[in-house]
Amino acid sequence: MVPPSLTAPDPHPALDDPARTWLAEATARIASDPGAIRRLFPAARRHCGRARLDAHWTVDEAARAALLTALPLRGRALADEVTGLYRHGDPAEQRAVLSALPLLDLGDLALPLVREALRGNDNSLIEAALGPYATDHLPDDEFRQAVLKCVFCEIPLGHVHGLTARADHELARMLADFAHERLAAGRDVPDDIRPVVRAFPGVIGEEVQHAFTEES
Amino acid sequence: MRIFDPHIHMTSRTTDDYEAMYAAGVRAVVEPAFWLGQPRTSPESFYDYFDGLLGWEPYRAAQFGIQHFCTIALNPKEANDPRCIPVLDELDRYLAKDRVVAVGEIGYDSMTPEEDEALARQLQLAVEHGLPALVHTPHRDKAAGTKRTLDVVRESGIAPELVVLDHLNELTVGMVLDSGCWAGFSIYPRTKMSEDRMVEILKGHGTERVLVNSAADWGRSDPLKTRRTADAMLAAGFDDDTVDQVLWRSPVAFYGQSGRLELDEPKPDEETTFEGNSIRRGGA
C-alpha cells in the first residue's frame, strides 16, 4: 500500500455543483466564525458524499479536512476545537479528524486523540490513528504497542504508516516473542510480521528460527 | 416479511435478541435516546451514551444484518435533574449527525415546569435541524398529558406530520390522529398495549399515520412484538400489503422526512439467514 501523503486529495472532482457550493460556503463561514464548524463538520458527509477517492481518503474525509484547514485558529485554541469535534464525533467524523491531523499545525497537542483511538476496538479508527501524525509524534514505546495491537486486531501491517522507518530492535523482539507464543499454542504466525523481524536477525531465537526462514 | 421497529432500546438487549429479530424479519431499527434506569449525574454520561448510539450500537446491529439509526434528546425524566440540563446546550452537535433521524424521546413524564421548558426547547431544535420529533406520552394521567403535549406541539410551529406521539392507547389515539400527528403504539407483554388491542385500533382508526413498535428496553418487554403484531394482523384478515405498510413503509416514511434515513431496502420476501453474525472482539 502507498503511504498516505501529507496533503489531502482534492475532493472537488468528486463533487456535484450543490456539493461544491456547500463546501465553498462552509469553509468561508468557518474562516469567519470558527464555532460554525460544530454543525457543519457532522453535516459534510450527507452534503458531499462518501465515495472513495484513493487508498486512504474518502470524499467526506477530504471535505472534512478542507473544513478543518479553514479554521482560523492556532495552537491550543485549534487543538481545543479539533478535540471537541473528535470527542463529540461519530466514527466517520473521528476517522476524518485523525486523517487530517498531519495537515494541521498542532505539534503534540492531538496525541490524546490518537491514544484514545488506539485504546478502542474500532479497527477503522486504529488504522486512521496510525497515519503520518502518529509516525511523527508517537513515542517509541507507544508506537510499538500500537503495531502489536494491529497484529492482534488483524490490521495488515502494510496499513501502518512509517513502519519501516520506525521499526526498531525492540519492536522486532516483541514480534518475535509473539511468534514464539503463537507457535507454542499451535497457531499460525501472520505473514506480515516477518519482514519486520527479519530486519533484526539478532532477535530470532532458535525456537522460532523455522518460522522466519525465507521459504516459510 | 420485512419489519422496521421504529422504537427499540437495543443498548439494553443481547446478541440473541438481534439474532431472533433478524430471523423474525426485522431489518431496521430506530433507537431513541432515553433514560437508563440508573439516573445519570452529569452531561458527560449522556455524551458517552450518544456516542454509543452513533458508534457501537450500529456496528453491533450490522453484525446481525440490521440497520440501526437513532434519535437524540434529553429525556423528560432527566430534564428534571439540574445536573443534566447542560446537555441541552450540546444537542446541536449531535442533532447534526448522519444517523440521527429525529429529536427524541422528548415529552412529559410528571408534567413539571422543567419538562415544559425542555420539551419546548427541543421542539425548537427539531424545527432548526429540519428533523422529525419522537414524543413520549406520560404513563400517569395519560389522556390529560397527551392533550397538553398536543398543545405544546401546536404552539411550537413544527409541522404535525413531523411529529409522532408514542405509547398511545384507546383513549388517546383519536385526538392524536385528528391533530395531524402520527400515532405510535408500544406493544408490551403486560402494560401499554397488546397486539390484539392493536389490531382492534387498526380496524377502528385505519392504518394511515400509525407506527407500531416494541419499545423493548431493560424492563419486561419483547423485541419480537412487532412481528407478533404483524401475525395478529394477518390472523385478523389484514393483507400482506397492509402489514408491510404498517411495519415497514410507514416508519420509513416518517423517519425518511429527516433526509438522513440511508436505508438498504430489503425485499419483502428476503431470505432470513445472515452470515457473519458474530461480534468481533478486539484481540488486544
What does this structure look like?
- The complex is a heterodimer of chains A (216) and B (284).
- With 216 residues, chain A is mainly α.
- Chain A is built from twelve helices and no strands.
- Chain A starts with 16 loop residues before the first helix and ends in an 18-residue tail after the last helix.
- Chain B is an alpha/beta fold.
- Chain B has a single domain, classed as TIM Barrel, CATH 3.20.20.
- An eight-stranded parallel beta sheet of chain B has the order 1-2-3-4-5-6-7-8, sandwiched between helices.
- In chain B, strand 5 (133-136), helix 6 (142-156) and strand 6 form a beta-alpha-beta unit.
- In chain B, helix 4 packs parallel to helix 5 (113-129), helix 8 packs across helix 9 (225-235) and helix 9 (225-235) crosses helix 10 (240-256).
- Mean pLDDT of chain B is 93; it is low at 280-284.
- Chains A and B meet through helix 2, helix 5 and helix 9 of A and helix 2 and helix 4 of B.
Topology summary:
The complex is a heterodimer of chains A (216) and B (284).
Chain A: H1 17-32, H2 37-48, H3 59-69, H4 75-87, H5 91-100, H6 111-119, H7 123-129, H8 132-137, H9 140-153, H10 163-166, H11 169-184, H12 194-198
Helix pairs in contact in A: 1-2, 1-3, 2-3, 3-5, 4-5, 5-7, 6-7, 9-11
Chain B: E1 3-5, H1 15-24, E2 26-32, H2 43-54, H3 56-62, E3 67-72, H4 87-95, E4 100-107, H5 113-129, E5 133-136, H6 142-156, E6 163-166, H7 173-179, E7 182-186, H8 195-205, E8 210-213, H9 225-235, H10 240-256
Parallel strand pairs in B: 1-2, 2-3, 3-4, 4-5, 5-6, 6-7, 7-8
Q: What separation lies between the terminal Cα atoms of chain A?
A: 22 Å
Which two chains touch over the largest interface? A-B, 22 and 19 residues
* Biggest sheet architecture of chain A: none
What structural class do you assign from the helix and strand content of chain B? Answer: alpha/beta
**What structural category do the secondary elements of chain A indicate?**
mainly alpha
CATH superfamily of chain B: Metal-dependent hydrolases
Instruction: Tell me the major beta sheet of chain B.
Output: 8 strands, parallel
Give me the Rg of chain B, rounded.
Answer: 18 Å
User: What spatial form of chain A do the alpha-carbon principal axes imply?
Assistant: elongated
Q: What top-tier CATH class of chain B fits best?
A: Alpha Beta
Please give the count of helices of chain B: 10
Rounded to the nearest angstrom, the radius of gyration of chain A is: 20 Å
Sequence stretches where pLDDT stays below 50 over 5 or more residues of chain A: none
